[in-house]
TrEMBL record, chain A:
<comment type="similarity">
    <text>Belongs to the ABC transporter superfamily.</text>
</comment>
<dbReference type="Pfam" id="PF00005">
    <property type="entry name" value="ABC_tran"/>
</dbReference>
<keyword id="KW-0547">Nucleotide-binding</keyword>
<dbReference type="InterPro" id="IPR003593">
    <property type="entry name" value="AAA+_ATPase"/>
</dbReference>
<keyword id="KW-0536">Nodulation</keyword>
<keyword id="KW-0067">ATP-binding</keyword>
<feature type="domain" description="ABC transporter">
    <location>
        <begin position="4"/>
        <end position="233"/>
    </location>
</feature>
TrEMBL record, chain B:
<keyword id="KW-1133">Transmembrane helix</keyword>
<dbReference type="InterPro" id="IPR047817">
    <property type="entry name" value="ABC2_TM_bact-type"/>
</dbReference>
<dbReference type="GO" id="GO:0140359">
    <property type="term" value="F:ABC-type transporter activity"/>
</dbReference>
<feature type="transmembrane region" description="Helical">
    <location>
        <begin position="21"/>
        <end position="40"/>
    </location>
</feature>
<protein>
    <submittedName>
        <fullName>ABC-2 type transport system permease protein</fullName>
    </submittedName>
</protein>
<comment type="similarity">
    <text>Belongs to the ABC-2 integral membrane protein family.</text>
</comment>
<feature type="transmembrane region" description="Helical">
    <location>
        <begin position="284"/>
        <end position="304"/>
    </location>
</feature>
UniProtKB/TrEMBL annotation, chain C:
<protein>
    <submittedName>
        <fullName>ABC-2 type transport system ATP-binding protein</fullName>
    </submittedName>
</protein>
<dbReference type="GO" id="GO:0005524">
    <property type="term" value="F:ATP binding"/>
</dbReference>
<keyword id="KW-0547">Nucleotide-binding</keyword>
<feature type="domain" description="ABC transporter">
    <location>
        <begin position="6"/>
        <end position="235"/>
    </location>
</feature>
<dbReference type="GO" id="GO:0016887">
    <property type="term" value="F:ATP hydrolysis activity"/>
</dbReference>
<dbReference type="InterPro" id="IPR003593">
    <property type="entry name" value="AAA+_ATPase"/>
</dbReference>
<dbReference type="InterPro" id="IPR027417">
    <property type="entry name" value="P-loop_NTPase"/>
</dbReference>
Length: 309, 368, 247
């Protein structure tokens, strides 16, 4: 049985004028760490709200922990842990008060499922009497996770938990998720950051309400259909502009230190060809190599393919 | 049940940790009562008055000297002409004008009876009334002095007249008015804001997803404000009784019962507002527009409803605080019992049920 | 060799006995894309406020676009542009009105505004959207428009606060194209962010930890020096020991 399942889910807002979720289907297996990856406005939050039963889909069906999101919403509400995107706890309550409150709301106590949250809670319990409003971003996030876990949910739904959190806290957060997965909890997490995709077992790439692909991160990268070249020089901007004017280049875009280049026709000597061309136009210290595509490269490829349809 | 208790306790934490809300809640009634109270009932000393003496005899002179020697009055002018009376009052130089008719002394000595006219600036009815009382007392005192034998006393009949607000409306009206206003602010605005805050924080979403019954969210939000409002109400009553010396003529129990009813009316309205808004600002604005302003205008404590155009009179009927104001006035100031106010109470009950019904019906178990 | 547009020497900002910014020194060159990184609470925002002329330092020296941060704050403000992910444009004004407004507050001549506006709209391909409310545009377009508006008055430096967080990758690439183009045109770009993938696009990066600059180099050299495979790792090594966090 799948822990989460969506079948042809549609959701529109503003009397059908804004399409938020467009025929989305995917399944999350029991005990899986599944990532929903896409930019702001892709429809991630709507999907989460449909799964947590606080929003009704226009069409399609979905289930969480084996229960239908419409008919059996009460059963779901007992079984999911949920961190909404803008969730920020009660700023004027202390760590302990927040946790106790959510424990009671879910009809349990901190002690009952202490094992589950122990590892996370131990990191913040020294500050038990500090108000949530006075905590750092990383600590708030840990507390929020504790609150979502307090009733030992079967499925954990985390909507953009790492947005606005610094790199150190983000890394710690993903480590915590891995721990939770070890304990058998199914986790569906969304993020706009492509670099976090590799930390999931499987991912769904989503844009404009449409799923572009559902795969393991490795397979998504493997499925990249063409060779990707990376290039840099003393003046990357000039090099980029020059390549864009080159007939043999299908697309060229900036991507950090090395820009990415895709050529129109694969050729064993593409590197030499590109290099010669670049040097002819006065670029110095040109370095060109074949590079493994990242999730982000794939996302760009897939969304451009989608756009050309 | 334990869940509900914990939830309500949490609400109390919110309230007691938010110093600003607390200040509004308890500072506002104190400030308003004292402000209204002292502006109205404080002793009037050194008030400027003018006298129009059309008789100029020994008696008028004696009486004028007596007034001059009292600590209450400063006499600016003693020979005001009749034409100048109104102008002086209009300019606001003096609060009151004393008019001796011609032949005042003659009348008094020969027929044993003379008239005197006191014209007061009624735009501030309470000061005017106080001044009139002082003047009448001084005149009565003088009357005693000149007729010691008291066989056939000389009688001076003061004929008082207030300009600009002939009935002197407004004396104690402000206390029921302030009560209505404050309960309104505390219950409606603060309850609405408290619920909407959860939406803004994103906690509402989590609560909806929890097994906690949505209706309990509303109850838990309402209970602390009900309690606080009752505390607030007690505070206002105590202030009125002990600081402003207002006598509560009717049953205190009845007063509390009808106030509880009115508080529930306001809470229902607050919950209704919270259902249709999603930001604290909108909620606050709606409570102010929807409740406070109508309370100020349509309850009759600042502007008499009878003087309004009929449209406004009709509108005033749908403002709950208008009915509450009538009830409180009857019970507190006139000492009337339930038999006299049941109609108003019934109107409030119907309004409350309607508001509560709509609020509960609109409360969403989902987001939209 | 190159012209320095930002010069900082022992710049310090103290709140009581708390050093929000503790003796930081660095230079930024003309046309450079400079990444200003740090964990939450490391002092990034405070430092950037000083450089934008919004707050006075406690001690140390700094100049921005040749103007002193103590005495010439007004001149600094005229010569910089600013864009953040949180606030950029007025959602309930049209594209055209936003351009006019921001051009206007920076004192660009009327005739000049309308000329540059036409040019800008054409470059962004927004001809059909000129009279649409900015709120109706897709996020990516808003972002690109916001950047164009931030450099509309042709400032010498533009400060970008987490400019591409949450934007889709295609738009992000286009956005960085615009940044590089601006930099190639001589505008210095100062990016504050705590997203490392944004950092990789910068020419040089400084990393702040607990009010101090702990590292400053090109992304390539940083990765080499810290034997890390990604900027994420470099950052993690440096910031892990941080004692401070935001409040």
């Amino acid at each position: 049985m799948d822990a989460v399942s969506l079948k042809n889910i549609h959701k529109t807002y503003d009397k059908g004028n804004v399409i938020a979720v467009d025929d989305v289907s995917f399944d999350v297996k029991k005990g899986e760490l599944f990532g929903l990856i896409g930019p702001d406005g892709a429809g991630k939050t709507s999907i989460f709200r449909i799964l947590t039963t606080v929003l009704l889909a226009d069409k399609g069906s979905a289930s969480v922990a084996g229960f239908d999101v419409v008919k059996e919403y009460r059963a779901i509400r007992n079984r999911v842990g949920y961190m909404p995107g803008k969730f920020s706890l009660y700023q004027d309550l202390t760590i302990k008060e927040n946790l106790e409150f959510f424990a009671t709301v879910f009809d349990t106590s901190i002690e009952e499922n202490y094992d589950l949250i122990k590892n996370i809670y131990d990191q913040i319990s020294p500050f038990n009497d500090r108000r949530a409003g006075k905590l750092s971003g990383g600590m708030k996030q840990k507390l929020a996770l504790c609150c979502a876990l307090i009733h030992k949910p079967e499925v954990l739904l985390l909507d953009e938990p790492t947005t606005g959190v610094d790199a150190v806290s983000r890394k710690e957060f993903w480590d915590m998720l891995k721990d939770l997965k070890q304990q058998g909890i199914t986790i569906l997490v969304s993020t706009p950051y492509m670099d976090e995709a590799n930390l999931c077992e499987r991912i769904a790439l989503i844009q404009n309400g449409k799923i572009l692909s559902v795969e393991t991160p490795e397979n998504i990268v493997k499925a990249f259909p063409v060779t990707l070249y990376a290039a840099k020089s003393d003046n990357n901007y000039k090099l980029l502009t020059d390549f864009r004017n080159f007939d043999a280049v299908a697309s060229a875009y900036a991507s950090g230190e090395y820009m990415r280049i895709i050529v129109k026709d694969e050729h064993p000597d593409s590197i030499t060809l590109l290099k010669d061309y670049a040097e002819k136009f006065g670029n110095r210290n040109v370095e060109i190599k074949i590079i493994a595509p990242t999730i982000e490269d794939n996302f760009i490829w897939l969304s451009q393919k989608e756009a050309n349809h | 049940m334990k869940q509900l208790f914990v939830f309500i306790r949490k609400e109390f934490y919110h309230v007691f940790r938010d110093k600003r809300t607390l200040l509004i809640m308890f500072g506002l009634p104190i400030a308003q009562i004292l402000l209204f109270g002292y502006a109205i009932t404080s002793e009037v000393k050194n008030s400027h008055i003018s006298i129009s003496d059309n008789s100029r005899d020994a008696n008028t002179e004696q009486l004028i000297n007596k007034i001059k020697s009292s600590s209450y009055f400063i006499v600016d002018e003693t020979s005001l002409s009749e034409q100048e009376i109104e102008n002086t009052l209009k300019r606001g130089n003096v609060r009151c004008v004393l008019v001796f008719p011609p032949n005042f002394g003659n009348n008094l000595l020969h027929s044993g009876k003379a008239q005197i006219q006191i014209i007061a600036d009624g735009s501030d009815p309470n000061t005017a009334k106080t001044l009139i009382n002082y003047l009448t007392a001084i005149i009565a005192d003088y009357q005693q002095e000149i007729s010691p034998a008291a066989v056939l006393p000389y009688v001076i009949v003061p004929e008082t007249r207030m300009l600009y607000n002939e009935e002197g409306n407004g004396s104690l009206n402000f206390i029921p008015g302030v009560m209505a206003l404050i309960l309104m602010i505390v219950c409606t605005a603060l309850t609405a804001v408290a619920v909407v805050k959860e939406k803004e924080l994103g906690t509402m979403e989590v609560l909806l997803v929890s097994p906690f019954k949505p209706i309990f969210v509303l109850i838990s939000k309402a209970v602390p404000y009900l309690v606080l409002s009752l505390a607030n109400f007690t505070l206002i009553v105590l202030l009125a009784v002990f600081v402003l010396n207002v006598e509560i003529k009717g049953s205190i129990l009845l007063l509390f019962l009808v106030s509880t009813l009115f508080i529930i009316t306001c809470l229902s309205f607050g919950l209704l507002i919270s259902n249709v808004t999603s930001s604290q600002q909108t909620a606050l604005l709606l409570s102010i527009m929807g409740m406070m302003i109508p309370t100020l205008i349509f309850t009759g404590f600042m502007f008499p409803i009878e003087n309004m155009p009929w449209v406004f009179q009709v509108i005033s009927n749908i403002v709950p605080s208008r009915w509450y104001f009538l009830i409180i006035k009857s019970v507190m100031l006139k000492g009337l019992g339930f038999a006299y106010i049941w109609k108003e109470v019934l109107v409030l009950i119907v309004m409350t049920l309607a508001l509560l019904g709509v609020a509960l019906k609109n409360f969403k178990i989902r987001l939209e | 060799m190159e012209e320095k547009v930002i010069i900082c020497n022992d710049l310090t900002k103290q709140f009581g006995d708390f050093y929000a910014v503790n003796k930081i020194s660095f230079d930024v060159y003309k046309g450079e894309v400079f990444g200003f990184l740090g964990a939450n609470g490391a002092g990034k925002t405070t430092a950037m406020r000083i450089l934008c002329g919004l707050s006075y330092p406690t001690s140390g020296k700094a100049s921005v676009a040749g103007f002193d941060v103590y005495k010439q704050q007004e001149s600094i403000k005229k010569n910089i542009g600013y864009m953040s992910q949180k606030f950029s444009l007025y959602e309930n004004l049209t594209v055209s009105e936003n351009i006019e407004f921001f051009g206007g507050i920076y004192g660009v001549e009327r005739s000049e505004i309308s000329m540059r506006r036409t040019d800008l709209i054409e470059r962004l391909g927004l001809e059909k959207e000129v009279n649409k409310m900015v709120g109706e545009l897709p996020l990516g377009w808003k972002q690109k428009l916001a950047f164009s508006v931030a450099i509309f008055h042709q400032p010498r430096i533009v400060f970008l606060d987490e400019p591409t967080g949450g934007v889709d990758p295609v738009t992000r690439r286009q956005f960085w194209d615009m940044i590089y183009e601006a930099a190639a045109g001589g505008i210095t770009v100062f990016v504050t962010t705590h997203y490392m993938d944004e950092a990789e696009y910068c020419n040089r990066i400084s990393i702040m930890v607990d009010g101090r600059i702990e590292a400053l180099d090109t992304p390539e050299n940083l990765k080499k020096n810290y034997s890390a495979s990604s900027m994420d790792e470099v950052f993690y090594q440096l910031a892990r020991g941080a004692k401070r966090s935001d409040n």
